[in-house]
Design a protein that fits this description.
This protein is mainly alpha-helical and 63 residues long. Helices cover 78% and strands 0% of the residues. Helix 1 packs antiparallel against helix 2.
Length: 63
Amino acid sequence: MSDTKTRIRRWGLDHAQLQAELALIRAEFPDQEDFEAATERLFAELAAKDAFRKRTEEPPKWE
């Protein structure tokens, strides 16, 4: 039971870190008409989300 609570707590901390990273990215690249800036923002957000998935993904459990 405590293992599940630990995983949930850790996921919550990782999710909070993701939200903070996305807020920093959105502050760095505000909504603009510039295509290059919008593309950089998109790729930065995708990289942050991919890093979140890698942090929270559990390795397979071998029997």
